[in-house]
Amino acid sequence: MLQSSSARLLLASASNASRLLLPSLSRVALATPTRRYLHQAAATHNIDIGDHIPAGIPVFDKTPLEKIDMSKEIAGKKVLIVGVPGAFSPTCTEQTVHDYVSKLPYFMSRGFQQLIFVSVNDPYVMAAWRDSLGIPAHHANVVFLSDPKGKFVEQLGLTFDASDFMGNYRSKRFTLAVEDGMVVAKFVENDSTKCDITLPNRILDQLPGLD
């Protein structure tokens, strides 16, 4: 009988404890913040010809202290925004940056004032990549900008899942011809690990010239 009474007391104590604990756990679960990663974000509009570059999304030049609003940076200019998956990768270096920079005089003859390279890398990596290519930090016509969290390319609708080989979501390989903030031509690779549709020689003839 003593054992039976003790068992009943233990069961009652356990029941009371569970009633006190469950609401607490529920409150903790509700209070836990939900982390929002790039690939979990709500679907955004894929930018297209006639659209304007979104405002208010910071990108960075050289250091985290040099914050830039792309829409303001390109206002009144005719530029090429060139998105690449990753700094220092062979295709991005040899087939994108090298080829675009070598064709800069041809782009300028069509009225384009700047090449703006953008990647989901931190500002220091982008600066080191630029330096490794021998491009001066304050080059008037060639700019390397960092989109460290991928927010800028996410708003363009131009990201892809590179988790298996780059660890996160990255920029697609793309080129946007932009005049005073408005997209006038768009070129996006079907496979961002390759460079085909966006090769400078292929897009030069399709770029709008001076009016």
From TrEMBL:
It comes from the Eukaryota. Keywords: Antioxidant, Oxidoreductase, Peroxidase, Redox-active center. GO terms for molecular function: thioredoxin peroxidase activity. The active site is at C92. One of its GO terms (biological process) is cell redox homeostasis. It holds the Pfam family Redoxin. InterPro entries: PRX5-like, Redoxin, Thioredoxin-like_sf. SUPFAM superfamilies: Thioredoxin-like. CDD domains: PRX5_like (cd03013). Gene3D superfamilies: Glutaredoxin (3.40.30.10). One of its GO terms (cellular component) is peroxisome. Residues 50-194 form the Redoxin domain. Belongs to the peroxiredoxin family. Prx5 subfamily. Thiol-specific peroxidase that catalyzes the reduction of hydrogen peroxide and organic hydroperoxides to water and alcohols, respectively. Plays a role in cell protection against oxidative stress by detoxifying peroxides. This is Unnamed protein product. It comes from Ambrosiozyma monospora (Yeast).
